[in-house]
User: Fold this.
Amino acid sequence: MIKKLLLGVTSIALALTLVACGQSKSGTSKQMATDQTLNLSTTETISSLDNSSASESVSLTALYSTNEGLYRLGNNSKIENALATHTTVSKDGLKYTFTLRQNDKWNDGQPVTAKDFVYSWRRTANPKTAAGYAYLFEGIKNFDAIQKGKMSPSKLGVSAPSKNKLVVTLSEPVPYFKLLLAFPTFFPEQQSAVTKYGKQYGTTSAKTANNGPFTVSGWNGTNNTWTLKKNSNYWDKKHVHLSKINFQVVKSPSTGLNLYNQKKLDVTPLSGTQVANYTNNAGFSKFVGGSMMYLQLNQKHVKALKNLQIRQALSQIVNKNALATKVLRDGSTAPKGFVSTNFVQNPKTKADFASDAYVKAGVAYNPTQAKKLWAQGLKQIGQKKVTLTLLSDDTDQAKTTTQYLQDQFEKLPGLTVNIDNVPNKNRLARSASGNFDLVVSSWGADFADPINFLSLEETGNSTNNGGWSNKTYDQLIKASQTTNANNPQKRYQNLVDAEKVLMQNQGVIPLYQPATTELWRPNVHGYVWNPAGMSRGYKSVYITK
Assistant:
């Protein structure tokens, strides 16, 4: 079954729409500005424009705006038809037949057909592609055998009997399958473009193909500025109001705020004291939920981190509430567990998942107990001293976090912690290759289901960079995806129990639950977004005078 990024029937509203003042019944303003150019910032450059390779928020954001799949998620996570105009599902839930619209084109004018989906999905499923999100296809027939090299990618359960008919066969029912189809990994790919550019496909804006509302220009693979331009071949271009979106990398919130005040940015993220200073501003926006900052501990290569007491000590020596409220001061909150609060509710009682799965010791601040556990752990591994390197990004907030963690950790006798702040792209690469001791990681869910988070720590999951493994945990996750997949309450309980196992065993250390806090220019309207920060769409945005 699907290992990550899933959505169940208990989802909360993950997409919010800014109030569009002065909108007409058609959804557009009667006083729209002549210049429909939006200026935005991001903390990192794009990593890839290849649907099969993209795995971080900046790249996914670009793909959400420049490409389109069978569905898209609208307000309140409502499924909306994109390229699919009609869908039929067999009674056993194993066969999906999609009728595609016939007026969608690639940016070069070539038609988008069902074969583009077949090609894309087979390419992603092919183990030679090494697609980071390939496991999302696990529910599709023959995927597992293909990943193990026992079957050709051509045997994946997807076919195109005609130009506008796409048929997908699953290995077992996946109740939330439709919602997965709004994720970029399931978007189509133009075979001629991929063939033309080969390994260079998606490495620059000139070496890619787009079928969405915008196209990318000006990105050479490493630079810090690029532009999204309205795609004249997009099937629904009449409802795309922006003509251009300018992006620039801005790592510092203070720099971003200065650019905003100089009217060089229309939106800027806020942090620290900025949040308190601008809370009452008309353009202030805040949301907490759907994301988590956490610490992965490399249990594969670091002897000390294989010890339970050592891991528990590292967690309990950190005052997570102080980190959120006194150090970051940006609206972030202390975590109750790995799965964030304000994310998913109990199908029966409507209680928050984080409350149902709460394990106090897994997130508590208890320095006295931490030092006892530390001493026990050192004795068990036969060491008196431990030196660890803490890896994280090089943004201002990341540096503030690592400095705080270093101070907290070194309160444990005999522990020395070195800090290594690197660009996000480098941190991701080092995490994936296991080149770290401790790494501050982030997760922003795209679909409102606890499996978004919990599947990350399954044995063998490509995102489980710390190498934590627990049989009971794996069994609970599997039960939620098989035996109890169609029983919401039993499935929910499986996931609650799995979260408890993870926290009791300190497989990860949740650090804080980020708040999405931003300052918007008042004349920007209609922006649909995912507060987890992963999937931002610009199709409905427009600017008034």
